[in-house]
Write a structure and sequence with these properties.
The protein has one helix and twelve strands; from the N terminus they run βββββββββββαβ. The protein is mostly beta strands. It has a domain of 118 residues: Jelly Rolls (Sandwich), CATH 2.60.120. β1 and β2 form a beta hairpin.
Length: 179
Amino acid sequence: MTEDYLRIGDVVRIGEPLSKFYQIPAREPFDYETGEEDSTVFSAVASGADSGFKNIELLEPDNSPLHLLQVLMGFRDTGNIKYYVKIPTGQNRFGVDNDKEVGFLNAEKSPYYAPNPLFQFYLISEWYPSIKCVNNSPVTITPKVYFRGMKYDLDLLADQVAAANRPHRNIIFGGVRAT
């Protein structure tokens, strides 16, 4: 599976929390790597330790004007490093609270510069991910996560009833594409 980005002119139905139809008048690609910001997201994580959940606030889209992000993420470290993701920050993305060994990604599942599109997700204002790194390797590491994707401008369609009858894509926040 490859990236399946929305096109200019596409209509999207954005589910909760908005539940409305929008058209995409413009889009632009983005790239972001943790460790490149002014204050780093992750510090060094010792062998056998974890980073705790770190909010990735730089991935929160603008609210005015309204934007939508389609995000892929890749990890630089070995398969011994597990990354747990919450979107929004309080909800597990790939698992359940009861089984802590379920629901992680690593560099084997989604490599750093070739993020796996099977794990892509959408973000809107007030929705951004938080990530925890668990270091099961024998050495101390500083986690590096690479995010890439597309940032979309959104225009609310005036006639919501007519929009419902047009071809459109349903957007599920935090989830993968749904048709």
